[in-house]
Amino acid sequence: MQIELIETYLDLMESRSFNRTAERLNLTQSTVSHRMKALEAVLGRPLFARNKGGTQPTAAGLRFHDHAKAIQHQWREAARAVESAGAYERSMRIGLQHDLAAHYAGDWLAAIRKELPGTSIYLEIDYSKQMNGDLAAGDLDLAILYTPHHLPDLHYERIGEVNYELVSSKVTTLADVRPEDYIQAVYSPAFDRLHRQALPHLSTAPIASGETTAIIALLTKLGGSAFVMAPDARRLTRTGAVSRVQDAEPIPQTVHAAVNVRTRHAHQHRRIIGLLQALLKD
Description:
11 strands; single chain; two-stranded antiparallel sheet; seven-stranded mixed beta sheet; 48% helix; 10 helices
């Protein structure tokens, strides 16, 4: 079976229009129709019904959907494996939450290379929304992220947490933090909820960012107060650039691992997740 038939079918399931699928895939409508007829001939069942109300999947079309997505995912994995074949037995494409990269990427990759010397690794630093989409599309094999989207084909698990601490270049107590000097951190929806619950009076700051590096740059340039990751708080206080706001509680951020449901028990994936889980406990 040609993978183009599967990909055309999946697009048509989403668009519910032969015209729109043709436009999206840069094909003619007759090509889309030919591909669907070819796929239906292979399966021996009609997959779509066209009427005045538009294009609707048949019962067989609906039942085939999950299997088609699985075929597409496996095909992409196979194509990547063959494309990158060389001295390594396996390859993995891994996503890592942007804020975790500076403190964990080096040690994590070093541990992976030691544990899995026959595996080549491509590491992509990104944000949760993009990584969820890339996993669902089969463009990543595994991701470490802050915010699960609980998509149908993905499996999520909590593997630890990191803390963000309030530091300031101007004050040392929470009562002295002024909203006009505050740089609001929005590292994830969960972090934002905890922040709003703990510090509602600081949840409408004039400047906000969702990435520690940017917030540190703003602190350095403008001065003020902000939550930064605990290792950065320690480093900045050692240099004297900021002080900890002593009576402000840290805000925890849960870290999740995400994989395709079909690989959640795979040995290689479990080892890679376990290695980062150990680092998060240190």
